[in-house]
Structures are given as structure tokens and as C-alpha cells.
Design a protein that fits this description.
The complex is a heterodimer of chains A (295) and B (508). Chain A is mainly alpha-helical. Chain A contains 11 helices and 5 strands. A 3-stranded antiparallel β-sheet of chain A has the order 3-5-4. A two-stranded antiparallel sheet of chain A has the order 1-2. In chain A, strand 1 and strand 2 form a beta hairpin. In chain A, helix 3 packs across helix 4 and helix 8 packs across helix 9. Chain A is elongated and about 70 Å long. Chain A starts with a helix and ends in a 35-residue tail after the last helix. In chain A, 47% of the residues are buried. Chain B is mostly helical. Chain B folds into 3 domains: 152 residues, no CATH class; 135 residues, no CATH class; 101 residues, no CATH class. Chain B is 60% helix and 8% strand. Chain B has 18 helices and 8 strands. In chain B, helix 2 crosses helix 3, helix 7 runs parallel beside helix 9 and helix 8 packs parallel to helix 10. Chain B is extended, with a radius of gyration of 36 Å. Classes of the chains: A mainly alpha (295), B mainly alpha (508). Chains A and B meet through strand 2, helix 6, helix 7, helix 8 and helix 9 of A and strand 2, strand 3, strand 4, helix 8 and helix 9 of B.
Chain lengths: 295, 508
């Protein structure tokens, strides 16, 4: 009895969507199948005929599209885009069973606020390096390239700039011993070692390159990056899904959080990574690949 | 009644008068000096802690070894990477061995590694040091602060290797007052060097030359960073004025220094060769090495400078001539990263957490059916083969010996060509003699003789050979039933092995 009830209920779920009367269980199965394809982010539509067919149906058959959207929403997913290039790009809504939690992602992060921050910052920095200019994030055809060492060098140099600025203003940025939470964020990255020799020649997990490497590996598993080589600690290129994720979700969410903290970044819409003023030295870090002059 | 009152009023007076700090300005200087002092602490610490090591290590001057290590790393910081860990250890060992010559070599190496690991501070998660110091803030409150620093840091090199670099703190505090204008300091050092050499004061000259090399390293370091960033993003740097100016300046610098240092090199070589005193000779020889190293670094710098222009043009094509995008996205750096980093950790972590939560995409949760679970739990663990899979025996096939000549024939031919230095012979005679021994042998002899017409002088020079087979054509035609051509004169030249060895060390 209970089994049949369950089956009925699970079939009824897509039917709750505002679908037209012509929806059949076969349509619902197809819609769910499309969402299931979307849940395999590394799968490319061009490589799978059935996936490509379902995508075409989504674009050509509006009731079917609404049905697929409803299935995704019911599962706790957000549909970012459905297109031949990105496939059924879905991502986890907050509190969804598909959401990634920091505690599962890396150990130590719950106990140590510093480590938690470093892992989060690594993800942000990878996005910044992948889409350095606003145009890059907006341009659907843009493919960003990142390297593990490049991301680390970039953040390090940005931190270095802030350190210099603080020194110029005569600030003492050394944190008070009894209030680690008040330490400025850049210092946490700056004082963590970039790399380190280990006994078994693996990357030191606690080093910043280790943390960045973990981030890009994770993003690669999420279908957001593709590994292209081993240079500079590993080189990667972005996928359409990553661009969508950063543009439509992560960027705006983090910006909202920042605004809530009362920090209003004031810019006039022009890119902030600009050539230095004349006279400024050209002391840039190798491999970082990005300018560090923001004023 | 008055006396208790006076004692009551005394403490506030005392505390108001000689307050330990006269405001934040005085304390800032103090803080700076405290930080400088903190940088030396790890070195003192080495000497204090050596007693805790298992074994008797008090003979070693750990601070001395540590300073030598920092010097070595600074000197070996290369254009591309840093200093190699093992190389530093190897170069430290002679000094350590000198401190305790009777101890075993393994112990010397252990000491070197211990010192180096402690300078990196391998035990801590940051791989750095932290010193706590207290200052009075602007509001008069006493605050304890953490000062984090590193002396030697590990940086990623190409191919996943790890290299060592000295930090600014280490260079500033421990190597010496290097925080000066690189160019002018370099010129000053070189002028000084020239004067010193012309007056024959080699001891001082060596000091100046070593300083010049420190500066050279610093200079190339600055340029390396600028060039790499230029290569990666055209918009990153000002290609209209700043970078071309800098490249022109650097090229001038290289050309200038190269001329200069070659002149110095000639001078020191002369000083070395003419000097009678062995100590002078040795010092001059060391100087030659140092200046040669400077020249090598300049050459490296120059090749980088020449790559910059073409790279810029290629990158410009790729980056700047793309069609501009219609709409604008979020400026991740300007809107997010830049405002985030100066925030206190407590607040910044909220933003990064949000980015992480929304930026990582999805994970499909693993779910297990009960039926599967039972199977999984009841399956005995697969026994892991300790030695791995068995290797199949390789199927070896004896390759046929397809050499044209046998070892014996080669030995015979070589013996035949072992000519005394003062008695060269005609090829025709050699061939005739060979034919008596073995009908195949003349071919080998002829082959060797033809090769000897262009003797491997370079190889012989490098390997320090004592004799070399040569052949000369004097125009006489070869009269032989099997071979045609010139009747070469084949002889042996004796080489001056000792002289060549001396030349080699100089060139190296």
C-alpha cells in the first residue's frame, strides 16, 4: 500500500506544475530525464544524442520546458540556462540536498575561521582570474583561463598592495593577540605559506596553492572547469556553466552580502583593473597575469 | 597626616611623568625596531634549541649556519625560480664540516637540513614565525599585537617543484641594508671594484663584487615580475610609455654592465695571472667566478627583454582586437575582491561563504539502497596484493650482432693506428699492413683515417685526452686496389693535458 502511495506521489509531483492538460507521464519522464542530464555537469550535450534531443524539445516545446523547469524547482534546483552550449545548466538552491556545504568540502573549516575564509577566498579568486574584466563575464563566448599558481600569485600581490597602502598610511595591521576575528582578511592569506615541501612530494594541502588546487579540482568535478595542462601547478579553462554560475548567482549573492555589511563598492562601471598611473613602479608578480592597480 | 597624602598622590604623578611612550609616533619607531628584532629571533633560537637535539650539537654555530643559508638562498635565487633545497644543503655542508671536522658527514647534513627546516619553520601551518609585541595605541591603550613574518619561503617552481626564496624581511634585516636604489648602488659598487682592482686590493674588491652580485639579483628580480605581467595581460600595464621605457632602460643597463663587467673580468684575469702571491691568485680567481656569474645573469635578463616586444604584439592581437561585448557583467575584482580583503576576517568570511555556497554548483548526494548496503557490508574486503600484480617475464630475443666489424677487428685497427708521436705514416702503408692481417681490416683502418682528417679536437679538449689521432692530406694520391683518394699522412699528436685543464677551469 505504502509503495503504491509513494509511486503515485512521485508521479504526481511534476503534474503539480502548471502544465497544459496534454501532459502525459511520458512527458514527465522526459522532463525528469532532462533534469537528470543536468545533474551530470560534466556531460556535454554534443556528446549525447538523447541529451541533445531533449534540449531541442525544451527549446521548441514551451509546455515541455515549463514541465522540466517545474521538475527542477521541485527537486530544489535553479535553472540557469538551457542551451546547446551549456546543456541543462542547473544548480543547487540554498538548503537543497544538492548544495555543497563548507564542512563537507574541507576539514578544519568549521573549527578555524581562517581556513574557512581561505577556502572561500580561493573560490572567489579563481572566478576573478577566470573573468578579470566585466566584459569577460558578460560575453557568452569568453573562455577564461586560470592556473593554480597564477591565482595564488594574484591574491598574494593584491594583499601585498594592501599591505603597502596600510604602511603608507602608517597603520599597524598586526592584529591584536586576543582578537583573531579582527585581523584584516588579506593578512590571513599573506601569512599562509604559498607552498611547501612534503615528504611524499605531494602538494602541501594547507598551503595557499594547495587550497587553490583543491578549489579548481572541485570546480572541475562540478563541470565548471576543464583541465588543460600541468603548467604552473595546473592550468584550466572555464566552461559556459561556470560563467553562468558566477554571473547569475555567486557574484550577485556575494555582492548582496557585502552590501549588507555596509560596504558599498563605488565604481562608475568601468573596469577597475587598469594600467597604473605613470610613475608607479612595475613591480608585478610573475604569472599572476592580472594588473593590480585599483584606485 | 601629610605623609600618607603625599604617598597617595605620588603614584599618579609617577605614572603621568615618565610614561613609557610619548604618543603613537614614538611607539611606531619602537614597533618597527621590535619587528626588526623579531626577525633575528629565529636565529638566536636555533642556538638556544640545539641542546634539545638528540646528540651533542653544541659545537655547531647554528646562527652562523643560518645566516650562511640565507646568504646562499639569496645568491642562488634565479631569474625564473628560486634556490634548490638540496643545492643549498650541499653548499652549507663545507661550512658545517669546518665547524666540526671530526663528526661524520651524515651528521653535517642533518645539521644543514635542521637549520634550513627551522628557517622555513616547517612545523607550523603558515610555515612562518610569529612574534608578539606590545605598543600603546593612539588612545593610550596598551595593545598586544602579532607580527607574522617569514625568513625563507617555499615557492612553486615549474613542474611542481618547490624552490626557496628569501623574504624581504630576511634580506633587509639579515643580509644587510640592501633597501637602496638598485641602479645607483650597482654603479657605485662597480666603480669601487674597478678602483680597488687597479690598486691591487683584492680583498676589498671581492667584497664589492659580492655586493654587486646581490644587487644584480635584486635588479633582475624586479624586471622579471614586470615582464611576466606584461606578457599575461596587455591592459595590465602601460605599454604606451612605462613598459617600453623600462625595457629600453633595462637593455641599456644590460649593455652597459656587460661591457663594464667584461672589462673588469679582463682586469682581474690579468691580476690573477700576474700575481705571485698564492692568496692573491686565489682571491682573483674567486672574483672571476663572481663577475662571470653577474654576466650570466645579465645575459639571461637580456634574452627576456628581447622576448617582450613580440609577446606584447601577439597578446595585443589576441586580447585587444576582439569584438567588444554589448552588456556589462559584475566587476568581480572591483566590486567583490578589492573591497573584501581589507575587511576584518569575521565579516570577510561571510562574503566568501556566500560566494562559496552559490558558486560551487551542485553535488549529487550518494544514496544507498538497503539491499545494496547488506551486500556491501557482507562482502569480504579484497585482499590487497602486497607486492602488486605479478610481472610477466619479458620475452627476450637475442638481437643478431649486425656490426660490420667485430671487437677484435676494432682492437687490431686501433693497435695499428697507435703510432708514435714522432713517426707519422702514410695511409697506403697502413692499409697494406692491415690487409696482411685480415681482408676486412683495411676498410676499418680507412674509415678511422678519414675520421682522423677531421679530428674531434673539441671532445679531446673537454675530456682532457693526452693524445689525438689526426690525418693530413698533402696532395699525394692513394695507390690502392680497393680505395681511392688522397694518401693521407696519419699521425698522433700529443696534447698538453695540464694546460687544457687549466684553460677549462678558467672558461667554466
Amino acid at each position: 500500500m505504502s509503495v503504491t502511495e509513494y509511486a503515485e506521489w512521485s508521479e504526481a509531483e511534476p503534474a503539480t506544475a502548471p502544465a497544459s492538460s496534454a501532459v502525459t507521464p511520458a512527458d514527465a519522464a522526459d522532463a525528469a530525464r532532462l533534469v537528470a542530464f543536468g545533474l551530470q555537469p560534466k556531460l556535454q550535450p554534443a556528446r549525447d544524442q538523447e541529451y541533445a534531443d531533449l534540449l531541442r524539445r525544451y527549446r521548441e516545446d514551451p509546455p515541455f520546458a515549463r514541465l522540466a523547469d517545474a521538475v527542477a524547482t521541485g527537486l530544489g534546483l535553479i535553472v540557469l540556462e538551457v542551451s546547446p552550449r551549456a546543456g541543462m545548466a542547473v544548480t543547487a538552491a540554498e538548503d537543497s540536498v544538492f548544495a555543497v556545504r563548507m564542512g563537507d568540502y574541507a576539514r578544519r573549516t568549521s573549527a578555524d575561521g581562517g581556513d574557512r575564509f581561505l577556502h572561500g577566498l580561493a573560490h572567489l579568486a579563481v572566478a576573478v582570474m577566470a573573468f578579470p574584466r566585466p566584459e569577460d563575464l558578460a560575453d557568452d563566448g569568453y573562455i577564461g583561463r586560470v592556473t593554480v599558481n597564477g591565482v595564488d600569485a594574484f591574491v598574494r600581490q593584491t594583499c601585498h598592495r594592501l599591505e603597502e597602502q596600510a604602511a603608507e598610511q602608517g597603520e599597524n595591521t598586526d592584529p591584536a593577540s586576543d582578537a583573531p576575528g579582527l585581523e584584516t582578511a588579506w593578512r590571513v592569506w599573506a601569512r599562509r605559506s604559498a607552498t611547501g615541501a612534503t615528504k611524499d612530494a605531494r602538494r602541501l594541502a594547507g598551503s595557499t596553492t594547495g587550497i587553490v588546487a583543491k578549489a579548481v579540482t572541485f570546480l572541475t568535478d562540478s563541470g565548471f572547469l576543464q583541465r588543460t595542462g600541468d603548467d604552473n601547478g595546473g592550468t584550466y579553462r572555464t566552461t559556459a556553466r561556470y560563467q553562468l554560475q558566477v554571473r547569475d548567482l555567486a557574484g550577485s549573492a556575494a555582492l548582496a552580502e557585502l552590501l549588507e555589511l555596509g560596504v558599498v563598492p563605488v565604481t562608475d562601471g568601468t573596469p577597475t583593473l587598469l594600467p597604473a598611473d605613470s610613475g608607479e613602479d612595475l613591480d608585478l608578480v610573475a604569472d599572476a597575469g592580472l594588473p593590480f592597480h585599483s584606485t | 597626616m601629610t605623609s600618607p597624602a603625599s604617598t597617595d598622590s605620588a603614584p599618579p604623578q609617577l605614572s603621568a611623568g615618565p610614561r613609557p611612550a610619548q604618543g603613537p609616533a614614538a611607539d611606531e619607531g619602537l614597533a618597527r625596531r621590535l619587528r626588526a628584532l623579531a626577525c633575528t629571533a629565529p636565529l638566536h633560537d636555533l642556538d638556544a634549541r640545539k641542546a634539545n637535539l638528540a646528540g651533542e650539537y653544541s659545537v655547531y654555530g647554528m646562527a652562523e649556519i643560518a645566516l650562511a643559508a640565507i646568504d646562499l638562498v639569496t645568491l642562488n635565487m634565479d631569474f625564473d625560480t628560486g634556490a634548490d633545497h638540496d643545492q643549498i644543503v650541499a653548499r652549507l655542508i663545507p661550512r658545517i664540516a669546518a665547524q666540526a671536522p671530526r663528526r661524520p658527514a651524515a651528521e653535517h647534513e642533518r645539521v644543514a637540513r635542521w637549520v634550513l627546516e627551522n628557517l622555513i619553520n616547517v612545523g607550523s601551518v603558515d610555515r612562518g614565525f610569529r612574534a608578539v609585541y606590545g605598543v600603546f595605541g593612539a588612545d593610550g591603550a596598551y595593545v598586544r599585537r602579532d607580527y607574522d613574518f617569514k625568513l625563507i619561503e617555499e615557492v612553486p617552481g615549474p613542474g611542481g617543484t618547490v624552490y626557496l626564496r628569501t623574504t624581504d624581511e630576511a634580506v633587509n634585516v639579515l643580509v644587510g641594508a640592501l633597501d637602496t636604489d638598485v641602479t645607483s648602488a650597482q654603479i657605485a659598487a662597480e666603480v669601487k671594484l674597478e678602483v680597488l682592482i687597479s690598486r691591487g686590493r683584492l680583498a676589498d674588491a671581492q667584497l664589492a663584487a659580492e655586493q654587486a652580485r646581490y644587487r644584480t639579483v635584486q635588479y633582475s628580480e624586479t624586471l622579471r615580475r614586470a615582464l611576466d605581467a606584461t606578457r599575461r595581460n596587455v591592459r595590465a600595464v602601460d605599454w604606451l610609455a612605462a613598459v617600453p621605457d623600462m625595457i629600453a632602460e633595462a637593455l641599456d643597463h644590460v649593455a652597459d654592465r656587460y661591457r663594464h663587467e667584461n672589462a673588469i673580468l679582463t682586469n682581474i684575469r690579468k691580476a690573477r695571472d700576474e700575481s705571485e702571491e698564492p692568496e692573491h691568485k686565489r682571491r682573483a680567481a674567486e672574483l672571476v667566478d663572481i663577475v662571470k656569474d653577474c654576466i650570466r645573469r645579465h645575459t639571461q635578463l637580456q634574452s627576456r627583454l628581447l622576448e617582450a616586444g613580440p609577446l606584447f604584439r601577439a597578446e595585443q592581437d589576441r586580447q585587444a582586437f576582439a569584438t567588444p561585448a554589448s552588456s556589462s557583467g559584475t566587476d568581480l575584482y572591483g566590486h567583490l575582491l578589492a573591497p573584501l580583503l581589507p575587511l576584518p576576517l569575521e565579516q570577510a568570511v561571510r562574503v566568501t561563504d556566500t560566494f562559496f555556497a552559490r558558486g560551487t554548483g551542485l553535488r549529487t548526494p550518494v544514496s544507498v539502497r538497503v539491499a545494496d548496503l547488506v551486500d556491501i557490508l557482507l562482502t569480504p574486503p579484497v585482499e590487497r596484493e602486497h607486492l602488486g600484480a605479478e610481472m610477466p617475464d619479458p620475452d627476450l630475443i637475442a638481437t643478431p650482432d649486425d656490426n660490420r666489424f667485430t671487437e677484435e677487428q676494432l682492437a687490431a685497427a686501433t693497435a695499428l693506428l697507435e703510432l708514435p708521436a714522432d713517426a707519422p705514416r702514410r695511409l697506403s702503408g697502413l692499409l697494406a699492413e692491415a690487409r696482411c692481417q685480415d681482408p676486412e681490416l683495411p676498410y676499418l683502418v680507412a674509415l678511422l683515417a678519414v675520421h682522423a682528417a677531421s679530428p674531434p679536437v673539441g671532445t679531446a679538449y673537454r675530456q682532457g685526452e693526452r693524445r689525438l689521432l689526426f690525418a693530413v692530406d698533402d696532395g699525394v694520391e692513394l695507390d690502392d686496389p680497393e680505395f681511392g683518394g688522397a694518401d693521407l699522412i696519419v699521425g698522433t699528436a700529443l696534447l698538453d693535458a695540464a694546460g687544457m685543464a687549466a684553460d677549462r677551469t678558467e672558461a667554466a
